UniProtKB/TrEMBL annotation:
<dbReference type="InterPro" id="IPR001288">
    <property type="entry name" value="Translation_initiation_fac_3"/>
</dbReference>
<keyword id="KW-0396">Initiation factor</keyword>
<dbReference type="Pfam" id="PF00707">
    <property type="entry name" value="IF3_C"/>
</dbReference>
<comment type="subunit">
    <text>Monomer.</text>
</comment>
<dbReference type="InterPro" id="IPR019813">
    <property type="entry name" value="Translation_initiation_fac3_CS"/>
</dbReference>
<dbReference type="GO" id="GO:0016020">
    <property type="term" value="C:membrane"/>
</dbReference>
<protein>
    <recommendedName>
        <fullName>Translation initiation factor IF-3</fullName>
    </recommendedName>
</protein>
<keyword id="KW-0963">Cytoplasm</keyword>
<dbReference type="GO" id="GO:0043022">
    <property type="term" value="F:ribosome binding"/>
</dbReference>
<dbReference type="InterPro" id="IPR036787">
    <property type="entry name" value="T_IF-3_N_sf"/>
</dbReference>
<feature type="domain" description="Translation initiation factor 3 N-terminal">
    <location>
        <begin position="54"/>
        <end position="121"/>
    </location>
</feature>
<dbReference type="InterPro" id="IPR019814">
    <property type="entry name" value="Translation_initiation_fac_3_N"/>
</dbReference>
<dbReference type="InterPro" id="IPR019815">
    <property type="entry name" value="Translation_initiation_fac_3_C"/>
</dbReference>
<dbReference type="GO" id="GO:0032790">
    <property type="term" value="P:ribosome disassembly"/>
</dbReference>
<dbReference type="GO" id="GO:0005829">
    <property type="term" value="C:cytosol"/>
</dbReference>
<comment type="similarity">
    <text>Belongs to the IF-3 family.</text>
</comment>
<dbReference type="InterPro" id="IPR036788">
    <property type="entry name" value="T_IF-3_C_sf"/>
</dbReference>
Length: 228
């Protein structure tokens, strides 16, 4: 009998214990739902990507259905499942295929895609690599040069980079670290509308006064709102 099975049917033989000198043979038949207008082999090799298959595009005659709140509804024909989705003013979305058993969920597919894109954006932002940049100053730098370097630092900051502002002292300048502090204060005033200090000015090896700046998202957001 097994030799008569088509690609659409699987047969299972179950032999029970002998009872009253007789052997009972049961045959169970399970239908495997293929894609429309294709054979079983094609179904196995060309399974659809569930995130892109919705409603009438679902190529299965029967699906296991989950409701809008992820509750189990059970196995329904595709037409029955589509009708339930329509009653909820939602879509029928193929979410997975486990052991050739398609599982679909009734949901607002537009909202699902929007939420997924939003989550991916958040994850990408968290995983983004911060690049360290450096702007070198001197205690006696002129105003024009200070503004030029502040403009470059602004570009780095808006790109999401971490910027070290370093004042280098030479010779007798090492005894006048307050000059470096003044320069850093003037510098920060030029980029304060988009930046925040993430590490206060610190003297390193008695030669450098370093301060670290990063983008202040709240300030940048307010700035963009004003421009709009």
């Amino acid at each position: 009998m097994l030799g008569l099975a088509t690609h659409k049917e699987l047969f299972y033989l179950v032999v029970l214990e002998k009872w009253s000198k007789s052997t009972f043979l049961f045959i169970f038949k399970e239908e495997v739902i293929p894609k429309d207008n294709s054979n079983f082999a094609n179904t196995q090799s060309k399974r659809p990507k569930s995130e892109h298959v919705i409603n009438n595009e679902i190529p299965y005659k029967k699906v296991f259905v989950l409701g809008p709140d992820n509750e189990k509804i059970g196995v329904l024909t595709k037409e029955e499942a589509l009708e339930q989705a329509k009653e909820n003013k939602m879509d029928l979305v193929l979410i997975s295929i486990e052991n050739n058993k398609p599982i679909a969920r009734i949901m607002d597919y537009g909202k699902f895609k929007y939420d997924k894109k939003k989550k991916q954006k958040i994850i990408k932002e968290k995983q983004s690599v911060t690049i360290n940049r450096e702007i070198r100053l001197t205690p006696l730098i002129g105003q024009h040069d200070l503004e030029t370097k502040a403009k470059k630092a602004r570009e780095f900051i808006l790109e999401g980079n971490r910027v070290k502002i370093s004042v280098k002292f030479r010779g007798r300048e090492r005894s006048r670290t307050e000059l470096g502090e003044e320069i850093l204060n003037k510098f920060f005033a030029l980029v304060e509308d988009v930046a925040k200090i993430t590490k206060e000015a610190t003297l390193v090896n008695d030669r450098f006064l370093d301060m670290y700046l990063e983008k202040d998202k709240k300030k940048v957001g307010n700035l963009n709102n004003k421009d709009n």
